[in-house]
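Board notes (copied after class):
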Amino acid sequence: MVVPRVEQDSLGPREVPDSVYWGIQTLRARENFPVSGLRASRHLVRSYAFLKLACVRANVEKGGLDPERGRALAQAAEEMAGGRFDDQFPVDVFQAGAGTSFHMNVNEVLTNRALEILGKKRGDYRQMSPNDHANRGQSTNDTFPSAAQVAVLLAFRELTPSLRTLIESLRRKGEEFSRLPKAGRTHLKDAMPVTLGAEFQAYATALDHLLETLPPVERALGEIPLGGSAVGSGINSVPGFRARAVEEYAKLTGLALSVSRDPFETMQSRWPLGAASAWLRTVALELVRIANDLRLLSSGPATGFDEIRLPEIQPGSSIMPGKVNPSAAECLDMVAYHVLGADQATAFAVASGQLEINVMMPLAAYEVLFSSEILANYLPVFARTCVDGITANRERLEKFLVESAALATVLTPRFGYLKVAELIHEAERSGRPVRELLIERGLLTKEEADALLGEAALLKLTEPVP
């Protein structure tokens, strides 16, 4: 039988399992907030480890912490950054305001491991304290938003390559389909022709544009309140700690981090998390549009567009034999819809800051990080299982193109808008192509019709006017 250790905090003593590195305040948080079973993102754990290591080094250098405790805490933080204690953070995502529960979970894990390194017993906080030593010159007020913003930057490091993978897949399809003219559609009605390749190139360009808007968001996330301690004043920190800690944090993470220009503003406002969430929302909106276009273009085959064929990755029905659904695109929609909902929750959290702190930080951090992670996980899969294997149904593309009365728009300069509209309506009523009606009425010779509406002419029509 394992004998529990006894730890003491400001509310009194409690028994803690001696097999764990977390301590009494984590125990209370587990009891108080058994909400979802959701745990902190690995990015938040890693970013907090680097933050604590930076603070230890800054404190030792500036005289805020003795070298012996500093060495032990630094080793513990390095181990935490390496993933050794990933199972030691049981605090629910939904917890006490501002993230105090998770922050103290971090402090207790580091302290108890540091005590162990020094040959002391876990929980012996007279030798080393989670509050007085691991947290020297710090507060949840400044460390949680700093770690959260750095965690998002780390998450974006994984998301942006995933997004580029999808962009490259769409570009390749754009090139492959560049010589395939097809009926365009506006308002879901027949419109002037485009190429299938142009549609796919446009999807890639839209996502490319979104990547171009990311750097300002990353710059905002890189300005952190670390060193502000409680409310931004830097209370209980040694001189020079703030600048040195941020400098070391930037070095450890390889990120462009900077001391906040106004430490009180970066305590009060979590708008950088809101900006990150808004960027993810915009990405999600484009992904929904693209996924739904692919679903529509592949619909049928007998009763839909059937202009493209998506890879058959799994059976689509438990009752209808042979039915195959656009499952990858459906999954992308669901991922994107979650991002949209997460953005709404983040928006409320960001708006709920009051006076010197925003206590809803844990929710905002979780939603942004989870959204980034599920996008980073799925976009390369979607590129591989869906986009890369798309094929064009050339017969269907040609059929719709030839039958589209909208092609007659090219005749407007010659015959006038009303005359062409009359031809289009007659074609729709009779079910005969406009080209056939033009030749029958003697308005165009066959050669003239070929020159205006033949394959070469149609391809030219799909090119942007200089």
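Comment from the instructor: The chain has a mean pLDDT of 94. The beta strands are 5-9, 12-16, 181-186, 189-195, 223-224, 258-259, 308-309, 391-392.
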